[in-house]
Amino acid sequence: MSGRTIHIFALSVLAFTGLAACASSEPAPYQIGRREPISLRDDGDMCGQSLVQNYVGLRANDTVREEVTRRSGAASVRWVEPGMAVTMDFRADRMTADLDEDGVVVSLRCG
Q1: Phi, psi values for residue 4, rounded to 5°
Q2: Which of 19, 51, 85, 95 has a CA-to-CA distance to 45 between 20 and 30 Å?
Q3: Structural domain tally of the chain?
Q4: 57 and 82 in contact (C-beta within 8 Å)?
């Protein structure tokens, strides 16, 4: 075989083995551009407040209330409007959502 034929043969073998490696049945452990879901709470977060802070500033309509309750995983959620009477007992597994006069979420905290 000539030098050029050997070179072409070697490139063909390398290309074939490269394609075979790409056809692996196991998924890559990390892929660029793919986001993993956030599922862990911050340390000491018993009511899931760290999972729902993106709802602060939104009006507490039925959809927001359902999503905060579901995503936080809190045992219960109480929606506190201005001037509303609430108990002062602290429950780490309860989410307290403070609202302003327009029904907008001001804060989400455990308690």
Answers
A1: -70, -40
A2: 85
A3: 1
A4: no
